[in-house]
Amino acid sequence: MAEQLDVEVLSTTPMKAVFEELSPLFEHATGNRLVVDLGPSAQLEQRLDDGEVADVAILTTAAANGLIERGRVVPGSLVDVARSFLGVAVRKGLPKPDISTVDAFKHAMLAAKSIAVSKPAGGGLSGVHMAKVFAQLGIAEAMNAKAKYGTGGPTGLVGLFLQRGEAEIGIQQIAELMAVSGIDMVGPLPAPLQSLTPLTACIPTSATHPDAGRAVIDFLITAAAKSVIRARGLEPA
């Protein structure tokens, strides 16, 4: 019998709930165990640039391509696995605001006493995007006065602010919002304000077990995995 391997996975946080469900299935199918370390894509990109060992990484496509250019990811190893969209949530049981149009979304943001979003610097792509959206809508100053900022990663999920009653409305990647219990999804951002983030799996050049990393990628594009990806708030690639 082959020795069980610990397969080191660096993954962007929207994949949190996906890996929680798929990791036991992968271990059952392959005999290898996934050791998943989650964080904002930009932070994971920096860690790989610094030479951190990982057998497989799931990052934004832009980050993966940048790592290839800098010799940190194996050329030809990139496989698109999912697409992530931004959404809005409230604490479970609270009224859901109307966000069906840009004007309705703007009104809901101004009416709320507090808003939870990712930190624009270092907290994740959604924080950067929402700072631009608030500026575009002319409400940046009002939002800054009422914003609660998540720092990114599993401990900085915006949904945790809602769960604790520290914010009325939360905005983040839909998959990250859905990873927190005790909240209700309102829906995706209006199309003109929406941001699509493609997520790509790749093999870092630091990989100790690159073949096991490739098995993870192959597993993520199976029909069963795509079903889980969709159920956890992402769109399969």
Can you put this structure into words, describing what you see?
- With 237 residues, the protein is an alpha/beta fold.
- It folds into two domains: 6-82 and 197-236, D-Maltodextrin-Binding Protein, domain 2 (3-Layer(aba) Sandwich); 85-193, D-Maltodextrin-Binding Protein, domain 2, CATH 3.40.190.
- 39% of the residues lie in helices and 25% in strands.
- The protein has ten helices and ten strands.
- It has helices spanning 16-30, 41-49, 61-69, 102-111, 125-136, 140-146, 158-163, 174-178, 210-220, 223-231; strands spanning 6-12, 33-39, 56-60, 79-91, 115-118, 147-150, 169-173, 183-188, 196-202, 235-236.
- Strands 1, 2, 3, 4, 5, 6, 7, 8, 9 and 10 form a ten-stranded mixed beta sheet that branches.
- Helix 1 (16-30) links the parallel strand 1 (6-12) and strand 2.
- The radius of gyration is 18 Å and the shape is elongated.
- It starts with 5 loop residues before the first strand and ends with a strand.
- The mean pLDDT is 95.
CATH architecture of the largest domain: 3-Layer(aba) Sandwich
Mean pLDDT equals 95
CATH superfamily of the largest domain: Periplasmic binding protein-like II
What would you call the shape? Answer: elongated
- Indicate the CATH class of the largest domain: Alpha Beta
Q: Secondary-structure element order, as H and E?
A: EHEHEHEHEHHEHEHEEHHE
Largest sheet: 10 strands, mixed
What low-confidence regions span 5 or more consecutive residues with pLDDT below 50?
none
| DSSP strand content | 25-35%
Beginning-to-end CA distance, first to last residue: 34 Å
Helix content: 25-40%
The CATH topology label of the largest domain is: D-Maltodextrin-Binding Protein, domain 2
Please report the number of helical segments.
Answer: 10
